[in-house]
Amino acid sequence: MSLLNTEVLPFKATAYHNGEFIDVTEESLKGQWSIFFFYPADFTFVCPTELGDLADNYEEFKKLGVEIYSVSTDTHFTHKAWHDSSETIGKLQYPMLADPTHVVSRNFDVLIEEDGVADRGTFVVDPDGKIQIVELNAGNIGRNAEELLRKVKAAQYVRANPNEVCPAKWEEGEETLAPSLDLVGKI
């Protein structure tokens, strides 16, 4: 079953954020855009390149009112140790959510049960707590924060303009489409 347009299921997790441990729940998401960025494990290879890419673009996401939650099944203590020991991970300013109980990973249907780690899943959640974008990548394929940023802008645009849709490769400021019978077969 698709998670698109469904509400984030209840959870409570601890995150490492700005030198502190904080609690995050599904209620923390209400009223803002959020990204859940699942990755397999701390102290690995592809994961730090992705998290570093998000960190490099974090200010752009913040300008759009988006909070990023990186999520793995590691503990919050492991997140802190990785943050303290890696130059790349040390620049993260967004919360690193710990999911050692696998509740969050199961809620988003990304848990690889036999390995106890999460798939590379990206979920964009709107201010109502509903999932608007779902993306899954194989474990050996990294994601691109700039493409994610483009998708968030599109999701925000269509939320603000419900009678319009964003075509392929749409960039902020470009023309959108107003679905109608007149367009059928004309594009």
Write structural notes for this entry.
The chain is of the alpha+beta class. The chain has a single domain, classed as Glutaredoxin (3-Layer(aba) Sandwich). Helices cover 28% and strands 24% of the residues. The chain contains five helices and nine strands. The strands form two sheets. The chain has a seven-stranded mixed β-sheet with strand order 2-1-5-4-3-8-9. Strands 6-7 form a two-stranded antiparallel sheet. A hairpin with a 2-residue loop joins β1 and β2. The longest helix is centred in the N-terminal third of the chain and has 18 residues. It is globular, with a radius of gyration of 17 Å. The relative contact order is 0.18. The model has no long low-confidence stretch (mean pLDDT 95). Belongs to the peroxiredoxin family. AhpC/Prx1 subfamily.
Which SSEs are present, and which pair or pack?
Blueprint lengths: L11 E6 L2 E6 L7 E6 L7 H18 L2 E7 L3 H10 L1 H4 L5 E3 L4 H5 L3 E2 L4 E2 L1 E6 L5 E7 L7 H16 L27
Parallel strand pairs: 3-4, 4-5
Antiparallel strand pairs: 1-2, 1-5, 3-8, 6-7, 8-9
Which properties best describe this structure?
Glutaredoxin, two-stranded antiparallel sheet, 5 helices, 187 residues, 24% strand, seven-stranded mixed β-sheet, alpha+beta, single chain, globular
